[in-house]
Amino acid sequence: MAIALAFSVIKIVPQGREFTVERFGKYTRTLSPGISFLTPFVEGIGRRMNMMEQVLDVPQQEVITKDNAMVKVDAIVFIQVMSASAAAYRVDDLNYAITQLCSTNLRTVVGSMELDEVLFQRDSINSRLLTVIDAATEPWGVKVNRIEIKDLTPPVDITNAMARQMKAERERRAIITEADGEKQAAIARAEGAKQAAILEAEGRKEAAFRDAEAREREAEAEARATAMVSQAIAAGDVNAINYFVAQKYVEAFAELARSPNQKTVIVPAEMGGLVGTIAGLGELVGLAREQQQDRRDDRQAARPAARPTTTNSPPPTQTAPRRPRGSVPGTE
Fold first, then answer.
1. To which H or E segment does residue 60 belong?
2. What Cα–Cα distance (Å) separates residue 283 from each residue in 230, 233, 238, 273?
3. Which three-class secondary structure state does DSSP give residue 156?
4. How far is CA 280 from CA 27, 227, 241, 324, 329, in A?
5. Cα gap 248→229, rounded to integer Å
6. What is the DSSP string of 232-283?
7. Rounded Cα–Cα distance for residues 43 and 21 (Å)
8. Which among 96, 78, 80, 92 has a CA at the least distance from the CA of 18?
9. Residue 297's pLDDT is what?
């Protein structure tokens, strides 16, 4: 009897649990974890409550959405008892009550949404369920920490339609990506052609500029030559015009001989004129040399004599008589 009395008076509450104490069936207090003492034959343990966080499984159920699609939905709920006395005496079966409450609210929330919203807005469903169920279980001394949709199973025909839609969407994206790649390649090719055309145009511009500059220099040289010939003709030197005409005559005859379409070359009958022209060119060269020699002799005669001349010096050389200027041998 003493041992039985000791067990009925001394109570040890484990960690994470709380016991309610009843006196003649009426709730008086709650025992916290640790050792506690009861009044023998008067007080007794009423309910043993689990104060740790618990996980409740909401069974799967079929729900009709707003667009009349049938889906199967289940969920899990995380709860924690905050008040042992309220959870023990304000609801008969706490776990069953919370499970049924979650089932009904899950059916209400999912039924107010369309199928696409149900499939793609699980976070919205979870937050709405958490708000409603937490407010409903607060009088029971229970805190609903979170609720999660565990599985959503649409009908088979809708699943097949979604698979076809996903396949078509991915094909569309592939076509768009391929088209973008071709577009970028075409743009790159166009940019390359543009740069090539610009460089080619710049090259043609530079070449045209160089050609124009060369033609300008050639024209300037031709103008200077023509001016010199004109000055020589004005001074009475006929050999200059003979040289000019002979040069053009020889160039024209050479072009006639080099023509690819010319099968027969007719030699002019008056070859003596050509020979006379060539002889005139030679006479021009000789006159130029004689003029240079005369200028050298004049410069030497103008210098003062550094040494006395002797009688044994050789006689001066006699120069050949000059031809009159303007005459061409062979044409007289």
1. strand 54-64
2. 19, 16, 12, 15
3. helix
4. 151, 21, 10, 13, 6
5. 14
6. HHHTT-HHHHHHHHHHHHHHHHHHHHH-TT----PPPS-HHHHHHHHHHHHH
7. 7
8. 80
9. 76
Q: How far apart are CA 44 and CA 20, in angstroms?
A: 9
61 Cβ contact list (under 8 Å, min separation 6): 72, 73, 74, 103, 106, 107
Local structure of 148: helix, strand or coil: strand
Parts of the chain with a pLDDT under 70: 229, 232-245, 249, 253, 255-288, 291-292, 302-332
- The SS3 assignment for 133 reads helix
Which two tokens mark 156? 């088979």
d(CA 51, CA 14): 11
Q: How far apart are the first and last CA of the chain?
A: 176
Per-residue CA distances from 131 to 100, 106, 138, 147 (Å): 16, 12, 11, 10
DSSP 29: E
Write the pLDDT tens digit of every residue in 62-83: 998 888 888 999 999 999 999 9
CA distance 117 to 114: 5
The predicted pLDDT at position 221 comes to 82
pLDDT of amino acid 317: 43
Q: In what order do the strands lie in the sheet with 142-153?
A: 54-64, 70-81, 142-153
Within its chain, how far is the Cα of 11 from the centroid?
76
Spatial distance between the Cα atoms of 272 and 17, rounded to a whole number of angstroms: 143
- Interatomic CA distance for residues 24 and 39, integer angstroms: 11
- The H or E element that residue 81 is part of is strand 70-81
Predicted local confidence at residue 162, as pLDDT:
79
Q: Please tell me the predicted confidence (pLDDT) of residue 261.
A: 62
Q: What angle do CA 250, 255, 261 make, to 5 degrees?
A: 150
Alpha helices in the chain (DSSP H): 2-9, 84-89, 94-111, 115-120, 122-137, 156-234, 238-258, 271-302
